[in-house]
Design brief:
homodimer, mainly alpha, Arc Repressor Mutant, subunit A, Tetracycline Repressor, domain 2, 0% strand, elongated, DNA-binding
DNA sequence: GCTTGTTTCAAACGACCGTATGAATTTTTA
DNA sequence: TAAAAATTCATACGGTCGTTTGAAACAAGC
């Protein structure tokens, strides 16, 4: 394994655990068993390392989302359930592997607290995925106003983000045993069902 | 305003903006216009200050949740919508005031990334609220298995947490104008409708 | 008024941070 | 194999961190 990969792996794990500011280059290089100066040599700066850690996996993830979407579209007339499953599965299925779970945890952190420039690049990627998902989603929910639809997508992203955070989320702690033994596939089923019902709910009259 | 209050206010704002590790005592005391040493004098340590910042508002918030719940119960036969509104309103309505919004942003941060001991005390408070909400919730959803209900509450908390994070959440950035002009009351309406539909969705057969 | 207790203050401590440097080492190229 | 390029290494720099200290300023009680 190359030095850069060792650094990326160690940084990914530590960032997910302690956050970006809470993780020092010394902790990273020590965990990766490389020299302290190699981070600045290979990546330039700590900030550049953060970007590299995120970009290594975010592009494959979003491409996977789009691929899944186009697969269900190719089958013709995808259900709302199929569309949402295509959207949430790539991220949640990663939680089955140890490496993937680390990154997803990190991604959840970013989703909630985007930092500086990172937010922009993350946003750009999200937009690209969103423009693909929007039209077929709209077809299933023609009666919703644009405002209502955006709000509901907002809710969907929130729930997904929380699920990605995994066992660290608040409620899970108290009912940990129940959740531990649930596979990603089961979680996806439950999540998609919940979200589809919410999305399909008739819009309220605008009062107040 | 006492020194301690000045410190708590400044810390709350900076913690919400830059996180706990990202905020130095020097930044806090400078913003509060007090001496650097006063934090350690009045609170003992930075960690104790963090706890003090959170506890100042978390107890009133949770008491407000319980009070709202008991109010709708007192009226007799509360709808699922009324129950959920009682749960989400106290937090989301705080976002209308500047002070409240700062704290809620901070709370959202904690909800997603609970840190060390903080998680335990936060969990204890959540549990207290949950034991009050569970029974009436159960009444409305008798056909759900315990596992399914817990999962759905998990989803509810996730969506709420994301909404609390406010304008910093990812999607909002790209559609900012639309969301900026939505009041907390409108957001609560939309959120409750979405969540109730999800909660009421019939449970899947256990397959896979 | 003087004493006693509380709070503020400037200054300093050691520790750790991200980064830079130049020599030593390894790898690649000719 | 010798020269060149790329990488690793120990070390150091300036800066900021949380915390401590002891004196100064202030308040309250007798």
């Amino acid at each position: 394994m190359s030095t850069q990969e060792k650094i990326l792996d160690a940084a990914e794990a530590l960032f997910a655990e302690y956050g970006f500011v809470g993780t020092s280059l010394r902790a990273i290089t020590q965990s990766a068993e490389v020299n302290l100066a190699s981070v600045n040599y290979h990546f330039g700066s700590k900030e550049a390392l953060v970007k590299a850690v995120l970009q290594r996996r975010s592009e494959p993830l979003n491409q996977s989302r789009i691929a899944r979407l186009e697969a269900v579209i190719a089958e013709g007339n995808p259900s709302l359930e199929a569309l949402l499953t295509a959207f949430v599965s790539p991220a949640l299925e990663m939680t089955d592997s140890e490496d993937g779970a680390r990154y997803i945890k990190l991604l959840a952190r970013i989703t909630i607290e985007p930092m500086g420039e990172l937010r922009d690049s993350l946003n750009a990627q999200y937009e690209a995925v969103m423009t693909r998902f929007m039209p077929p989603l709209r077809e299933h929910l023609p009666e919703l106003s644009q405002e209502a639809l955006l709000w509901r997508i907002h809710f969907v992203l929130g729930t997904l983000g929380y699920c990605m955070a995994g066992k660290d989320a608040v409620l899970l702690e108290s009912q940990g045993a129940l959740f531990e033994q649930t596979s990603a596939a089961q979680m996806i089923q439950r999540l998609v069902r919940f979200l589809c019902a919410g999305l399909r709910s008739p819009e309220l009259d605008v009062s107040l």
